[in-house]
Structures are given as structure tokens and as C-alpha cells.
Design a protein that fits this description.
Layout: H1 3-17, E1 20-23, E2 27-30, E3 33-38, E4 41-48, E5 51-54, E6 61-64, E7 74-76, H2 80-95, H3 114-125, H4 130-138, E8 141-142, E9 145-146, H5 164-174, H6 179-199, E10 201-202, E11 207-208, H7 218-221, H8 228-233, E12 235-236, H9 237-256, H10 260-280, E13 282-283, E14 288-289, E15 292-294, E16 300-302, E17 305-306, H11 307-315, E18 329-330, E19 339-340, E20 342-343, E21 353-354, H12 356-368, H13 372-389, E22 396-397, H14 414-428, E23 431-433, E24 437-440, E25 452-459, E26 461-469, E27 474-480, E28 483-485, E29 490-492, E30 496-506, E31 518-519, E32 523-524, E33 531-535, E34 538-542, E35 551-555, E36 558-563, E37 567-570, E38 578-583, E39 596-597, E40 604-608, E41 613-615, E42 618-620, E43 650-654, E44 661-668, E45 672-681, E46 693-699, E47 702-709, E48 719-720, E49 724-728, E50 731-738, E51 753-762
Parallel strand pairs: 18-31, 20-32, 26-30
Antiparallel strand pairs: 1-2, 2-3, 3-4, 4-5, 5-6, 7-25, 8-9, 10-11, 12-15, 13-14, 15-16, 17-19, 21-22, 23-24, 24-29, 25-26, 27-28, 27-30, 33-34, 34-37, 35-36, 35-38, 38-39, 40-51, 41-44, 42-43, 43-51, 44-50, 45-48, 45-49, 45-51, 46-47, 46-50
Helix pairs in contact: 2-14, 3-4, 3-5, 3-14, 4-5, 5-6, 5-9, 6-9, 9-10, 9-11, 11-12, 12-13, 12-14
């Protein structure tokens, strides 16, 4: 008898003996066990009393889960596998609290970053762990502002998802009677938001700049050709929804505090941001919000599916939508991946991965839209991973559900643990907070016919016991201390004493499968090999590709040609032209490859820093690498040697003093729009740090915008900033970059950088 047949018989026996809570093509969750059939193996986790036993790694392993102390809420469903994982979650939150009383991000970490703790607190920690939440949130404040403590290219303002702190802090403040903290939350959130409005809000598109929220390993979700500067100039869905939520909260808090002028201001920006997201980040073709907008000279919308961003958008009422938006993609058996489609050749971490905390937000968005199937899928696949791995892991490989194979993984990851608590408190029990009190909207899968009971849940001065009877997502009746209440009953924020709440649900129609546009596991390849080549007086675009594959060629952001070839002759033009290439993958989103620019020497102006008026820094003539000679007189982008400065010298260690500035002079042959690029170095790590340099830009004494000089990875290679379009007058123009009170980093110092030159090119 072969191995597969034995496994099949084993699963058949289990199915016939034990009631089934959930099943899909690969896993089954029953009363007290989980079974998974994957790659010809049967893996099982089961509950025996207080012990979870698993054979996931090929040998039996177990974990004894202590009974939570009486100070914590008790949760019972009559399904041992669900109940013990709740107790494990309480235990793991305790383990994730250090001796100073602050949350840590997981077993491998000694702290929790702003976004980690914020997403976790909102999901399930704000009330039960109220004091720890308050104390932890305060560690992410510096000088009255929210810290952006990690992110691409030196963090802020390349990464701006610190606004997740606002929703967590507000949620925590609502669960507390501490008005000092409430006022602190408002003031800190206000300061951070005003800074973002000043530095990263684009008034043309009404969007906030910054990379995708939590997806900050740039090559995992962005094409490799994008520099930290490109990412910082782009607009991401999740980051913008975080700002929209924060603006909504600031409006509510201003109203509570009687700050009418503030409220009007927040309402105005909230409306603008909402319009910006729904105008520029909504894909009519895909019928969902897009992952991000690459904001180059010619913007390009990447219509990929970003699960956290879509979930937050649903939860924030950003746009009226149906549950179809949750079903645009066909997930695999372990939950929906955090991004789709996957980038070919990129190992699992954000690419090709499931993150339990994102499952929590997706599950709650499904509950809001009353999609029982998606709620069940995300909840029970989280049950599966928690039981089989004996902990709530940071992430897992989406294609096979394995805890091994991602770039980094940790046990008891804070936001993963909080995700399970979120499914309990916000999902099965249905609690949500507002300035009025607690609202109740439970969601119970049809298979969970037992009553769901939560006891000893503390909310301010109230102690709450909740029992949810029946299944579905529509309320039939609510009894509070034996008295019937309206279906939209709110437990008042000033309630005190003990409350026994009994909610009966009425069974709705069974969930049905909805049509998908593509599989979440689908892959796309980004063309990052495009070059411009001049051969025999012909100008050619060339790239590495596959014979007979159809490619899309874009010119100045618009589709120019479809071609089954890997090169294309193009015309020589007087003005600079941007080209990029992408694979044609049918229904899959198009992610454009590296842009190349045609250039005309006649329209290019180079202003060397050593010929400019400079305050601060040091003139240097040294090259940063031995045996490399300075490039003299390079004009075209392709002629610059990244290991040497251009011309006679450069400025190093510039920008560290309050009054540092550089005034470049550009002599334009005609009025018009020009492309500006600075050649610079900022040697911090590309993937983290806190020393992105920010400068103000003025042209002929008129302020234009802020310029970002993010980390470039080392102090050996020069980079150009992302091109921007500005208007210059015929004749001499003064281009000044300088420090101001608005351009210090988060910790109020000015990171130093090296500057080589300013390159300008006539555009139109």
C-alpha cells in the first residue's frame, strides 16, 4: 500500500470521527486537532489537556500552556484547539513584556518598533494590556513627536508609516480613563501630522509620500531599480490609509476637546486625502485599491494587491465597497499573501509570504463586510499555524505554509499574537471602541455552533461577561443584565459595575465562492536590464528577455508599442524622453522596469559644487576609492563614474549645521521646465537607520519644495537624486538647498552628506 493512500485513509477516518470546524484543500481543523496534508506528508497538532502536541518537523514536540491568571479575561468556546490557543496568546503577550514593562516585538527582539507595537495594540492589546500599551506607546515619542524608527534609506521621510501609532494610541486612550494620556495622544499626533503635511503631503495629488507600511525591505516589494529616493517620492496605499485614519481620529479628538478650528482643519485634510486615495490609488480595471504609485516625472500606478492596505481601507470606510474586493485574488491554503502577485526571483519574506497580523486585519475587514468565508479562511489558517508551530510565528511561506524558508522569522511575534486576540475580541465577540463606548458586532463561522463565552473583560470601570449564541454575522437579540436592548446597543464609555451581555445571532446564507481575477501565487518578472545603446548611428532600446514573449514599451509613461523582441529602434529627439519596458502578463498587474532617458548634451547644464557659494562642509579633492581617477566634464548620465566625483572637487560632511547651504547657479538658454538631479552620497544602510537628510529648495529666492537625500548604502558610490521638474528663467538662476527648522531629522539634528554637483536638463 503506497504512502499517499495511507495518508488519505488516515484523513478519511479523522473526518468521519471528529466534527469539522474548517477544511480546505490542504488542512482540516476539528474539535481538538489540526491535520495538514502537504507534499505527501500528514502533519498533525492535537490538544491533550493543557498540552499541544505537534509532529510538524518530523518528530513529536509539545508545549504546556498555563492557565491564564485570574486578572485576564477567560475565553471558552468548547473547542479545545481554539481555547488553548487563546491561552497561549495571553502567555505569549506576557513573555513579550520586558522587565521595564514595555512590549518587545518577539522572541528575537529586545524592543518593539513603532509600527509593530501599534498594529498589535490596535488588534487586541489596548484594553487587556492597557497600562503596558500606554507605557510602550510612550517609548515611541521623542520631543513630543512620533518616531519613525525604521524604514528604507534612513527612515523618515522615506518611510512615513509612523501614523499607525495614532490609531493604536487612540484605541488605548478610549480604553483608559487617563485624560492626561488622551491629551498627550492628541498633541503628539497633531505635531506628527503637521510635520507630515509640511514635508510629505503632495498638494497636487492630495497624497502622502512614503514607502509601503511595514513592507520596508525594498527589494521584496519594489522593483530593484527603484532607489530609496524613488521610494520616498512614491505614494503607497497602506501608508496613505494610515494617514486618513489618523486624520479621522484627530478630527474626533478635536471635537471631544472642543477645538473647533483644529477639527475644521483635520476635516479638510481628511477629505482631500480621501479624494486623493480614491482618485490616484484606485484601479477601476482590477476593482481594488492599488499597492502604490511610482511618482516619477511620469507617474506609474502599480495595480498589485497589498493586503494590509486594502484591509485598512475597508475598516476605515474610505469608500463604499462590497466583499468582492476581498475576493479579487485566489489565495493558497494558508491565508492570503501580504502582496500579490509575487516578484519572480525574490525569496520569501514579504514576497510569497503570509503574515499572521495581516491575517488579523483581513479577517476584521471581512467581518465588517460580512464575508463569512474570508473571515473563516483567515481565522482557521491562523489556528493551523499557531497549533502546528506551538507559537504565533512572525510569518510563513505562502506557497507551502512552512515556518522555515523566509528571510527572518521569530516565535511569539507580538503582532502575530495580537492577531489571534483580535480575532477573539473584535471578531468572535465583536467588540469595537468609539468615543461613545463599546459596540458589539460578533461574527461566528457556521461550524462553530457552541456558545462563545468571554468573562472578566475589563473596560474602564466596567467588568463585562459576553456570551454569543448561534452563528452568522447578524444580530437577532441582545440582552444586557437580562434586559432586551436594541441591536445597535453601545455599552456607555462611563459604564461602571458588572455587565452580563448575551447576544444571539441569526443564521445567514452560507458563504459562496466569488470569482477571482488571478491566483495570489502568480509571479511577474520586472525588466531591470533596459539600456540605451547607440549603434551605427541608430538609437536602440535593449533588454534581457525571452524569445517570443510579448513586451510592453512605454514612452513618457504611456504605452508606446507591444513587441515580441528584446530590442527596439527609437527616434532621436531634442527633448529628453523616458522609456521603460514590462512583460505583458495578461490579467496580471504591470510593473514597469527601469526607466532610461534619452539625453541631448545641448540642453544639459552642470553646476559643480566647488564653483558654487557654499556654507558648511569641507572641500575635498580625494577620490573615495584607490586607483579611481576623477571624472572630468561628464555630462550624460552614462558617462559618470559612480566611484569618483566629477570635476575638481566635492563637498563632504555638509549639511550638519543649522545655517548650512549651497547656492548653485544655472544659466538657462531659454525659459522652460528643466529636470534637476543632485549627485550625492549619504553612506548609511539602505534598509534602515535614521539619517535621511532633508533640505529645502528655493529657486531665485522662492521656496519650491523639500529635497530628500536618503541613505545610499556606503561612502564609496555616488548617486543621483530622483529627477524633479522645475521652471527656470532664461539667464542666471540661483538654486539653493539649505537647512531650516523644518529639515532636522526626527531627533533634531542635521545628518551630513557629500554633494558633488547639480545636473539640469531642458525638458520642455
Amino acid at each position: 500500500m503506497n504512502k499517499c493512500l495511507i495518508i488519505s485513509m488516515f484523513l478519511t477516518v479523522l473526518l468521519s470521527v471528529y466534527p469539522e470546524l474548517y477544511t480546505n484543500d490542504t488542512i482540516q481543523v476539528s474539535n481538538d486537532f489540526v491535520v495538514e496534508k502537504n507534499e505527501g506528508e500528514a502533519r498533525k497538532a492535537s490538544v491533550k489537556g493543557r498540552i499541544i502536541i505537534t509532529n510538524y518537523d518530523g518528530v513529536d514536540a509539545s508545549r504546556t500552556i498555563p492557565v491564564p491568571a485570574k486578572e485576564f479575561p477567560q475565553f471558552k468556546t468548547g473547542y479545545p484547539i481554539i481555547d488553548i490557543l487563546y491561552d497561549m496568546a495571553i502567555e505569549e503577550i506576557k513573555l513579550n513584556t520586558n522587565t521595564s514593562g514595555f512590549f518587545v516585538a518577539g522572541e528575537k527582539w529586545n524592543q518593539a518598533w513603532t509600527r509593530d507595537m501599534s498594529y498589535a495594540i490596535f488588534l487586541g492589546l489596548s484594553s487587556v494590556f492597557n497600562k503596558t500599551s500606554i507605557d510602550s506607546l510612550r517609548t515611541r515619542i521623542y520631543n513630543g513627536n512620533i518616531l519613525q524608527d525604521t524604514g528604507t534609506g534612513g527612515s523618515y521621510p522615506i518611510s512615513t508609516d509612523r501614523m499607525s501609532w495614532v490609531m493604536a494610541a487612540y484605541e488605548t486612550a478610549l480604553a483608559s480613563k487617563d485624560m492626561v494620556f488622551y491629551n498627550e495622544v492628541y498633541n503628539v499626533s497633531k505635531k506628527a501630522m503637521l510635520q507630515d503635511i509640511e514635508l510629505v503631503f503632495d498638494t497636487a495629488k492630495n497624497l502622502f509620500k512614503g514607502e509601503q507600511s511595514f513592507l520596508d525591505w525594498r527589494e521584496q516589494t519594489y522593483p530593484r531599480w527603484m532607489t530609496p529616493g524613488d521610494i520616498g517620492e512614491s505614494f503607497a496605499l497602506g501608508t496613505n490609509v494610515n494617514h486618513f485614519i489618523a486624520l479621522s481620529i484627530l478630527s474626533n479628538m478635536a471635537s471631544t476637546l472642543g477645538l473647533s478650528e483644529d477639527k475644521n482643519m483635520w476635516d479638510r485634510y481628511k477629505k482631500l486625502n480621501q479624494e486623493g486615495i480614491n482618485t490616484h490609488l484606485w484601479s477601476e480595471e482590477k476593482n481594488h485599491w492599488a499597492a502604490y504609485l511610482i511618482n516619477g516625472v511620469f507617474p506609474s500606478l502599480y495595480e498589485g494587491y497589498e493586503t494590509l492596505g486594502v484591509s485598512l481601507a475597508i475598516l476605515s470606510d474610505l469608500k463604499d465597497t462590497s466583499s468582492d474586493i476581498l475576493n479579487r485574488l485566489n489565495p493558497l491554503s494558508y491565508g492570503l499573501s501580504v502582496v500579490s502577485p509575487q516578484l519572480k526571483g525574490i525569496p520569501p519574506y514579504h514576497n510569497n509570504s503570509v503574515w499572521p497580523f495581516v491575517q488579523g486585519y483581513r479577517g476584521l475587514s471581512a467581518a465588517k463586510l460580512k464575508d463569512m468565508k474570508v473571515f473563516s479562511d483567515e481565522f482557521f489558517t491562523l489556528v493551523r499555524s499557531g497549533a502546528l508551530f506551538l507559537t504565533f510565528k512572525e510569518n510563513l511561506v505562502a506557497s507551502n505554509g512552512n515556518k522555515k524558508g523566509t528571510q527572518i522569522n521569530s516565535d511569539r511575534q507580538l503582532w502575530s499574537v495580537a492577531s489571534y486576540l483580535g480575532f477573539v475580541y473584535r471578531g468572535l465577540i465583536g467588540m469595537s471602541y468609539s468615543s461613545s463606548g463599546i459596540h458589539f458586532n460578533p461574527v461566528k463561522p457556521q461550524s462553530m455552533t457552541n456558545p462563545v463565552i468571554l468573562k472578566n473583560f475589563t473596560y474602564r470601570d466596567a467588568t463585562i461577561d459576553v456570551e454569543v449564541i448561534g452563528t452568522g454575522c447578524d444580530i437577532e437579540s441582545i440582552l444586557v443584565n437580562g434586559k432586551k436592548q436594541p441591536d445597535d446597543y453601545i455599552l456607555p464609555i462611563n459604564a461602571s459595575g458588572t455587565f452580563s451581555i448575551k447576544i444571539t445571532l441569526k443564521k445567514g446564507a452560507d458563504s459562496i465562492d466569488k470569482p477571482h481575477i488571478y491566483d495570489a501565487s502568480s509571479e511577474i518578472k520586472v525588466i531591470d536590464s533596459l539600456v540605451l545603446s547607440e549603434e551605427k548611428n541608430k538609437l536602440l532600446l535593449k533588454w534581457t528577455g525571452v524569445k517570443d514573449k510579448e513586451y510592453l514599451v512605454f514612452k513618457n509613461g504611456q504605452l508606446f508599442k507591444k513587441i515580441k523582441a528584446t530590442q527596439l529602434e527609437i527616434a532621436k529627439e531634442k527633448s529628453p524622453v523616458e522609456y521603460s519596458v514590462a512583460e505583458d502578463n495578461g490579467v496580471l498587474p504591470v510593473l514597469k522596469g527601469n526607466p532610461v532617458w534619452t539625453e541631448n548634451k545641448k540642453g544639459i547644464i552642470i553646476s559643480e559644487v566647488e564653483q558654487s557659494f557654499v556654507k558648511g562642509g569641507e572641500i575635498s579633492v580625494d577620490v573615495v576609492q584607490k586607483n579611481v581617477k576623477p571624472t572630468i566634464g561628464a555630462v550624460l548620465l552614462k558617462d559618470f563614474n559612480r566611484f569618483s566625483h566629477n570635476g575638481k572637487a566635492y563637498i563632504e560632511k555638509w549639511g550638519g549645521a543649522t545655517d548650512d547651504f549651497i547656492e548653485f547657479t544655472l544659466k538657462a538658454s531659454s525659459d522652460g521646465d528643466y529636470l534637476l538631479r543632485w549627485r550625492f552620497m549619504n553612506g548609511g544602510p539602505v534598509n534602515t537607520g535614521e539619517k535621511c537628510s532633508i533640505k529645502e529648495l528655493s529657486i531665485n529666492s522662492v521656496f519650491q519644495r523639500f529635497i530628500y537625500f536618503p541613505h545610499t548604502g556606503n561612502w564609496r558610490e555616488w548617486q543621483f537624486t530622483s529627477p524633479i521638474v522645475v521652471h527656470l528663467n532664461k539667464g542666471a538662476n540661483t538654486i539653493k538647498i539649505y537647512n531650516s527648522s523644518k529639515t532636522y531629522s526626527q531627533k533634531e539634528y542635521y545628518p551630513i552628506i557629500n554633494i558633488d554637483l547639480l545636473k539640469a536638463e531642458f525638458f520642455k
